Amino acid sequence: MEYGYLGKSGLYASRISIGGVQLGSEDLSQRQVDRIIAAMFDVGINLIDTAYIYGNGQSEVRIGKALGAKRNDVILVTKGGHYKAQYDPPSVGAPSRRYLVREVETCLKRLNTDYIDVYMWHMGNSVPPHEMLRAMDDLVKSGKVLYIGGSNTPAWKLGVASEYARNHGMNPVVLEQSGYSMLNRSRELDTIPCCLEYGISFMPYRALQSGFLSGRYKQGEPVPEDTAVGRYNKPTLDRMSTDENWEILAQLTQVAGDLGIPLPELALAWLLHQSAVDTVLVGASRPEQVIENAKAANVKLSPDVLARLDEILRRND
Ligand SMILES: NC(=O)c1ccc[n+]([C@@H]2O[C@H](COP(=O)([O-])OP(=O)(O)OC[C@H]3O[C@@H](n4cnc5c(N)ncnc54)[C@H](OP(=O)(O)O)[C@@H]3O)[C@@H](O)[C@H]2O)c1
């Protein structure tokens, strides 16, 4: 496994990190989660991402149990302030000071820890950036949180919060998480330039488009039942299932074949070659997937291959 600093922070993270949505799923038992976390340690992954809403909190609970005495060996990322906040009617939930401060207590209990490495506001919505930043800065000062992160933060808000932190000597945002993959490059236009300006590390999620970029789905064929998409996320596949995307997938499969690597490895490695990306977040429902995905950290793509990929992906801009 290769490691690197996240943006301008002192956090030293594995180039591949692991997502927590699957770990809170009803389809997995604690034993299966334990095995996935064990595989994660085996391959040297040291960053786990979760959120208080994944599996209604079960993701945090299971990760806390699976880590046990090894908690200090990982960078734990979790989030608060999503619109599904449980305290008030859902429509008023947002990363306000009120939610961020209350939810951190729940996260700490569920994760069975006394500090969170990176605490993210989850979605920017309607709360002023100064309020989000100040609340987070206070949580860092309290010792409950070590670093500040954002999830799906609108780029303008990320910029304003970062400028505010810079001008007021506050703890800055060090990590921003948003959807980014070979088939979804919109963040290259706004969030990523903002991250580069402020030294924030950009962490892509849905790096495999929830499995579409795994190459397991075939155009016109039924979705396999043993996949998350097959079980309950078919709309994701329906959205991706355009003639253009299938054509791109065929060409990407060809490139992966020429390089002698599986398609998911190519998709993850490509992200690691993009600006501001220091670690790529990928979900796994089996230990074998963790082991395979970790290999992407060591894949070096030549300028020629990157140009060939850019040519294929340009039509998707
Ligand atoms: N901040 C946010 O709003 C937000 C939103 C979404 C996700 N996230 C985070 O990002 C993480 C990843 O997102 P995601 O799970 O939606 O998308 P993803 O990482 O693109 O897809 C993960 C899925 O791809 C399949 N997969 C993974 N490795 C594979 C391999 N080597 N070969 C074949 N298939 C493979 C698995 O599907 P099967 O399970 O079907 O085998 C796995 O569940 C989440 O766990 C979460 O931590 C954050």
Protein architecture, described:
The chain is an alpha/beta fold and 317 residues long. It has a single domain, classed as NADP-dependent oxidoreductase domain (TIM Barrel), CATH 3.20.20. It contains twelve helices and ten strands. It has helices at 30-43, 58-67, 97-111, 129-142, 155-168, 191-198, 228-232, 234-240, 243-259, 263-272, 287-294, 303-313, and strands at 3-5, 12-14, 16-19, 47-49, 75-80, 116-122, 145-151, 173-179, 201-205, 280-282. The strands form two sheets. Strands 9-8-7-6-5-4-3-10 form an eight-stranded parallel β-sheet. Strands 1-2 form a two-stranded antiparallel sheet. Strand 1 and strand 2 form a beta hairpin. Helix 2 (58-67) packs across helix 3 and helix 4 (129-142) packs across helix 5. The longest helix has 17 residues, at 243-259. It is globular and about 50 Å long. The two termini are 31 Å apart. The mean pLDDT is 91. NADP nicotinamide-adenine-dinucleotide phosphate binds at residues 19-22, 49, 151-152, 177, 205-211, 214, 216, 227-229, 264, 281-285, 289, 292-293.
Task: Quickly list its features.
317 residues, alpha/beta, TIM Barrel, eight-stranded parallel beta sheet, two-stranded antiparallel ribbon, globular, binds NADP nicotinamide-adenine-dinucleotide phosphate
Task: Please specify the SSE layout and strand pairing.
Layout: E1 3-5, E2 12-14, E3 16-19, H1 30-43, E4 47-49, H2 58-67, E5 75-80, H3 97-111, E6 116-122, H4 129-142, E7 145-151, H5 155-168, E8 173-179, H6 191-198, E9 201-205, H7 228-232, H8 234-240, H9 243-259, H10 263-272, E10 280-282, H11 287-294, H12 303-313
Parallel strand pairs: 3-4, 3-10, 4-5, 5-6, 6-7, 7-8, 8-9
Antiparallel strand pairs: 1-2
Helix pairs in contact: 1-2, 1-11, 2-3, 4-5, 5-6, 9-12
This protein binds NADP nicotinamide-adenine-dinucleotide phosphate.
The site of NADP nicotinamide-adenine-dinucleotide phosphate has 29 residues, from helix 7, strand 10 and helix 11.
